[in-house]
Fold these 2 entries.
Entry 1:
Amino acid sequence: MFVTPEGERVLIVDGHTHLWDGRPTNWRNDYGRTFIDTFWSGHVGFTPPDKRWNQDNFRYYGVEKSARDLFVDGYCDAAIMLPVDLREFYNEGFNTTEQCSALKALCPDRVVLNGRIDPREGARGLARLERDHDRFRFKGVKLYTGEWNGNSRGYRLSDDFVRPYLEKCRELGIGILHVHKGPTTHPLDYDAFDVRDVDQVATSFPDLKFVIDHCGMPRIDDFCAVAGQEPNVYGGLALVTSFIRARPRHFKQMLIDLLWGVGPDRLIFGSDYAITSPDWIVEAFMAFELDEAETTEAGHALDLAAKRKILGLNAAKLYGLDVDALLALPPVTVPAGQARDAAE
Amino acid sequence: MTDPAAAGGGIAAATKAARIGDVRARLDQIRDPELDEPVTAMGFIQAIEIAGDDVRVMFQLPTAWCAANFAYLMAVDMKAAVAALPWVASVEIVLLEHFAARRINEAVGQDLSFVAAFPQKAEAELDDLRQTFLEKAFLARQHAVLAALSKPVAILAADWSIADLERQAGESEALGAAAARYLALRRSLPGQRAFVTAGGEAVAAADWPVHLREIRRTAMTLAANAEHCRVLASARTA
């Protein structure tokens, strides 16, 4: 929870977190190196210099450090975990449901553990989803459309093989689909970041909620067009909010357009932990203001009520989390051995 | 002459420096189509090597996962631009540290089409993609012109002619630069209206506020995307 100088308590739900293993021992090939190195570039580029980690720590930080970064230092009352396998690049997977479940085990009341699906896995994948769901009881699943799988270099939500998976989610009561719109590289000639395929599935499955992680960056304009039309499409702000320090002018422009195009009720804060940590973003976002002309342009005020929604209430509502119960939870204590990592 | 290169039939250092300058000037004209920014200004060019009349350009994108199609377009454009220099005998473009580097480098070296380069993984050539992003660049540049005007003037600018814009552009340096960039793309579309849609159509007065917002959003997306690339690229040297 974040407490304003006036004493207002603000629920914080980090809508986009991971627990990964990007160590060289886990690299299946050189793609394993380049993948985690891209994340590292994001970490260095966006994180304030005095809060940067060292590279080894970034590749693998473990469950206790993540509990500390999120729930002790990071103001978070709850965190949504978004697993992705990436077994083409990592021997044991990069950020699997199994790996993420360690944080759920440590902080069961604060962690929402989502599953992952890859609709290219056919009947085998559907059976796996059922098995995983039996074990973890998912409210949501993550689709990483850019993930490599065999000969495939990614897929689109409008591909025919996706529908059975969405129907299975519906059948199992999994109502939330997180879609990473990132560098889907297949087919290679497509505008790989296109978000318009979301439109089709959101219309076909009006009872499911689609959270578009990173708001379609780098295609926020297309994302706003889609989310403006489809009431079951949400904007996951991971990466967008990371601009707040290094590129505040661009952050403001993106936020104004997202408020105008999507509105404050369907935007969900996410730090993209551990690309960076929520503490400094939450502080900067709480201090961020739009002037009168910008508010007119955005069509919505960025007042305390809007900040509450974006930083926590929207995610709590989407996931059916009990706000009062979260705010009343005892503080997380982590063994003292893992002191906060100093900047290197 | 004691320059070993010259003695070996190569070129003098001064000539070499001039030629590197020639190549760089050509590369200044090549834009990342997704960002509408020059590849040189984005810091993508890692090295320019000259051996006699042969040129090699090494470039690297901010991440190994940048889209292969845009990388391919840039490589093809760079090759054509450098090859057009009168003294150039051959050009090799080398993309570094990228998931599709080997295939892109081979294919551009052999002047293959994109589909021929990626027969299993590409379904069409990149002409449509290029056109889509040319249209986005056009709208973003239009936004830059209108943003350089004061708000009341921008609202009135809906029915300006190209001549009106050129007249106004002489008034201020900032507007002049934005207008020059915009008109460079505007002139390939028909009509005399200064501000038109990407399809070249006039915008009805009633639609003008919506149009202003749309082009603002397009410009914001392009600019934020370019900033993201700069942030990631800067981390490489941090």
Entry 2:
Amino acid sequence: MEGDAELQDLYRETLLDYFRSAARKGTADPADVRAHGINPVCGDELEITARREGGRLAVVRYAGHGCVISQASAAMMAEALEGASVEKARELVAAFKAMMTKNAPLESLPAELETAAALEGVRRFPLRVKCATLGWNTLAQGLDAAEGKKNV
Amino acid sequence: MSRLDPAALKADFPIFKRLVRGKPLVYLDNAATSQKPRAVIDALVDFYENHNANVHRGVHTLSEEATAMVEAVRAKTAAFIGAPKPETVVFTRNATESINLVAYSWGRKFLKAGDEIVITEMEHHSNMVPWQLLAKEKGLTLKYVPVELDGTLDLDKVKKTLGPKTRLFAFTALSNALGTVNPVDQLVQAGRSVGAAVLVDACQWAPHRRLDVSSWGADFVAFSAHKMLGPTGIGVLWGREELLEAMDPFLGGGDMISRVTLEGATWNVLPYKFEAGTPNFADAVAFGPALDYLEKVGLDAIRAHEDALAAKAVALLEAEPVVRVLGPKDPAERSGVISFNLAGLHPHDVGTVFDLEGVAVRVGHHCCQPLMHRFQCGGTARASFYLYNDESDVEALGRALRRTIEFFKLGTKAGAR
């Protein structure tokens, strides 16, 4: 069935695994990066917290409720960004968003985003792209706030 | 009451010729907006091709024609809702604007600090946020009638929330999020018995049930054309004449004035006092055939048809253990709007799988975030029926539902949480 292939392409096994995983769900405590994101389309709320140690993101956590895509994406982000320098984390957020919103080719993705590349199927569902980027945008806001920059 | 033939009706709606993701369109998002019959689309084209000119301005032939066409639809609208006078029918952009008009032109003029406005927890944001804004501006108290867990209002709690300070009671006739049919007559009576003005949000009522503003006895009634086969960009505010007369204008500009000098202006008569600027006359004209269509099919037949489909859909949904249907259990208290959730799965994922089956449902908070909070969910999936839906649409809903449950292995240990 045509729809089956589309469904499996969107909701890949990896996504479902990360959606069901509780590995990085919760709150970093203590945290020095903290941001609250809202998807205005559905009203879903996500809290991203992180702790920096020596210029790196030692712990990244996400909390809140949401759809398979937003939760899996946040889980993948938390995994990919843990251990990265703040500068690297920003690069990864930008690269992920370029993939989701600017159709950047998968080959251009940094190695750290290999898992998150499984979200590429979401690009064919434009109304769901905001679900995939919610966690990443929220983290970026948190980093800006932590560094005293204005939210842009 | 004559039964309607949905297959014949569907043929009147061009959109049902198209495929969605390779499948025939199954449109179950009627509470958001309805599809349009050929007659409405033709009327819009005919207006632009043959009659287009600004209304209430020129003395040339086209302007006279356009003006007469708009006023004919105003009269038709008045007759459709049982309003004795066409001039008590104000055309707005949508029901949201209608309600904001009342908040601005009536509320700002007549309410003062300490006065109370009562609304219910089940209101659409459009019948909630305007009152929050007004309450903040004027120092009013905004009180909410709670919603029971079965999705209904408790009349005793309504009466307890209303009081001598209540100046306005605003409520929905039919909940867009739960499908609850409210006892409008009793609610209006409760509001009037404490001396409050009463506003009824009839957005979900007007397309599906006979609306008679005279028998309701409310002071204001608001609804939108686009949910009842009409074009987007036309809303209706019906108001009691003496209240409309006493109110100040909403927007200032052309058409709403009687005389303008450098020192000030005086206001035009009803309803033009509230219709500043070039109105959306083309869409107003195309609303006429929508009303004709509803009258031809018959509101009673439409309601009976939708009730039958809704009953089947509810039975089908409730047969699945992972499904929770919100709203009243009693079919008499429920309409063709069905809100449901699948345990362990977000409504957005439900909506995407349904879309892949060609089934259009609404997912999310339905502009009722406080209500969703009351039911401890961020949102729901919502199927809503209209006159052109048929049993095959209910079957498609069932197929999409089973597909979702199977794909995400819901209700099993391996399933989405």
